């Protein structure tokens, strides 16, 4: 019998890139990650992504999908909606039926393509909230593909996430950070898809192959942290923490001594899922699922970053 290494404590899905996530009891696996994850994105007048790095007010946008949307076989009807809220704004409802209009020249990092346009009402709402011309677009997997970096995860794909389909952090890591930080921070600063408990701090650094439920995940790259963990997700206020403190014990100089330092700090592990290529029933993970480590590295010095 394999020994259990931890359990899934929480699952988070972020329907709109850089807006608030949703904690869900279960999430089906698709070819691009969890269903609905980063399927939408806010873009500027040039079609370029807008994220919290430039617009911390995105942290204040709450997103809600029907609970049944995370059932494996559920399909939206004409009266299924994504509900969007922000302080001082009327509630916005966006139909989950796919729009017909196309926006060309949409870009996220070095990817360029077309996307589905969620229309004038959503554009006006977002433009008013952000104070700049903005539109809401939806990834169109029927016509577009966004591949992950082949140097780390060849053959996999994602929608509008930054790099890879999944990101995992352990509760042990968050607890260890909060013991050092002057002000404890919640997990939403790090925006994981999967939060696991029952393992040691930063154990996930070393995980190269894990199993959750019947699904196999491969750890492909340590997660280098941008500005977003310094943004309070309840207020949108930016500070220097936790990045300033993390430089003292989670920097590339310390964790990856064999590589040229880039001034990065690392929290979490990016994952891909072996079963994303299949349409088998039961490709779902749930809160409470046990996690088993199949293969791990001996030290972070061996880790990809």
From TrEMBL:
Pfam families: MOSC, MOSC_N. Residues 134-294 form the MOSC domain. Transmembrane segments: none annotated. GO terms for molecular function: catalytic activity; molybdenum ion binding; pyridoxal phosphate binding. InterPro entries: MoCF_Sase_C, MOCOS_middle, Pyrv_Knase-like_insert_dom_sf. One of its GO terms (biological process) is monocarboxylic acid metabolic process. PANTHER family: MITOCHONDRIAL AMIDOXIME REDUCING COMPONENT 1, MOLYBDOPTERIN COFACTOR SULFURASE MOSC. This is MOSC domain-containing protein. The lineage of its organism: Eukaryota, Viridiplantae, Streptophyta, Embryophyta, Tracheophyta. The gene is LOC110787070.
